[in-house]
Design goal:
Layout (H helix, E strand, L loop, with lengths): L7 E12 L1 H5 L12 E12 L2 E5 L14 E2 L4 H6 L10 E3 L5 H4 L9 E4 L1 H7 L2 H4 L3 H5 L7 E3 L4 E2 L6 E5 L8 E7 L3 E5 L7 H5 L10 H18 L2 E3 L4 H5 L10
Parallel strand pairs: 3-5, 5-6, 6-7, 11-12
Antiparallel strand pairs: 1-2, 1-4, 2-3, 8-9, 9-10, 10-11
The protein binds zinc ion (ZN).
The site of zinc ion has 5 residues, from helix 3.
C-alpha cells in the first residue's frame, strides 16, 4: 500500500547534551570516545497521520535541576506544538524509544494520549528505583494513561505507515520507529540504538546498555530492516542527522 500523502514528520527541539570527560567516555564501551567532546541534540518527533497524531520521544525536562550542566533543555514543547495549533491533549498516541530522561522528559504532558510501550520498559520506568527519582515529575502522570502494551513490532494505524520496532539492549524495552512518507520515503528513527554516525559504522554501544549481546542483535535486526526497506536512518543524537531535517515547524512529507 502506498503511504498516505497526508502523513507529516516534524522534528521538535527537546534540548541538547554536551558530553565531556567520563560522560563522553561512557558513550562507547571500547573507549573510542574518551577524551572527546560530544555535542548531541535531543530531538522529539511528531508524526501527523489522517487517523491521529503520534509523539515519539518527549525530550528533556524543562524544570528538573538535578541533571547537571551537560544538559540544556529545549524550548517549551507546549509552545512548540502551539505554533502548529496543537496542544498535548490533541495527541492521540505517545511512544518513547525508551524511558531515559532525555527521551521521556516531558512525557507527563501526554497523560491524555494512549501510551504505546513495551511492558518491561514500563515496569522499569515505574520501579522503586525510578520512583525515588525526579523522573516521576517528568513522566509520572503516564502511570494512569490509557496504555497499549506491545511485545512485538506494532503497526500503529494498521496501514504499515508507522511501525514501532522492538530493538532491546540499550534498555530492556528499547524501540525504534519506522515511518513511511509519500515523498521522503521510509525513515527510521533509531532512538538510542546508536548515538553517533560512527557508533553505527563501528557497532559501538555505551557502557551503560543493559545487555550488550542483545544490543548487537538489535543492530543486526534493524540494519536488515533498513536494507529491506531502503529507509533513511535518523540517528536521533547525531548533529548531522538533526541538521538534515526540515527545521520545525517545517516538516517532511
Ligand atoms: Zn538518549
Amino acid at each position: 500500500m502506498a503511504p498516505s500523502d497526508e502523513i507529516r514528520l516534524f522534528a521538535l527541539d527537546g534540548g541538547r547534551i554536551l558530553a565531556t570527560g567520563a560522560d563522553a567516555a561512557e558513550m562507547s564501551d571500547d573507549g573510542a570516545y574518551a577524551g572527546r567532546t560530544l555535542e548531541m541534540p535531543v530531538p522529539c518527533f511528531l508524526v501527523r497521520h489522517p487517523l491521529g497524531d503520534l509523539m515519539w520521544d518527549t525530550g528533556m525536562s524543562q524544570t528538573r535541576t538535578d541533571l547537571g550542566a551537560w544538559a540544556t533543555p529545549g524550548p517549551s514543547l507546549v509552545d512548540q506544538l502551539a505554533t502548529i495549533r496543537l496542544a498535548p491533549g490533541d495527541i492521540r498516541f505517545l511512544s518513547v524509544s525508551h524511558g531515559h530522561w532525555d527521551h521521556s522528559g516531558n512525557g507527563g504532558l501526554f497523560f491524555g494520549s494512549t501510551w504505546i510501550v513495551n511492558p518491561v520498559e514500563r515496569e522499569i520506568m515505574f520501579d522503586d528505583e525510578a520512583r525515588a527519582t525526579p523522573a516521576m515529575d517528568d513522566y509520572g502522570a503516564l502511570e494512569t494513561a490509557e496504555t497499549r502494551l506491545i511485545t512485538d513490532d506494532h503497526d500503529v494505524f494498521g496501514d504499515g505507515s508507522i511501525v514501532i520496532i522492538q530493538a532491546p539492549g540499550h534498555t530492556p524495552g528499547h524501540t525504534v520507529l519506522l515511518v513511511r512518507l509519500a515523498e521522503a520515503g521510509p525513515i527510521l528513527l533509531s532512538g538510542d540504538l546508536w548515538h553517533l554516525a560512527e557508533s553505527r559504522t563501528h557497532r559501538r554501544q555505551p557502557t551503560f546498555n543493559t545487555d550488550r549481546a542483545q544490543t548487537l542483535a538489535s543492530m543486526d535486526r534493524v540494519e536488515a530492516l533498513v536494507a529491506e526497506t531502503g529507509a533513511r536512518v535518523i540517528i536521533q543524537h547525531s548533529p548531522a542527522d538533526q541538521a538534515s531535517l526540515p527545521r520545525f515547524p517545517a516538516s517532511l512529507r
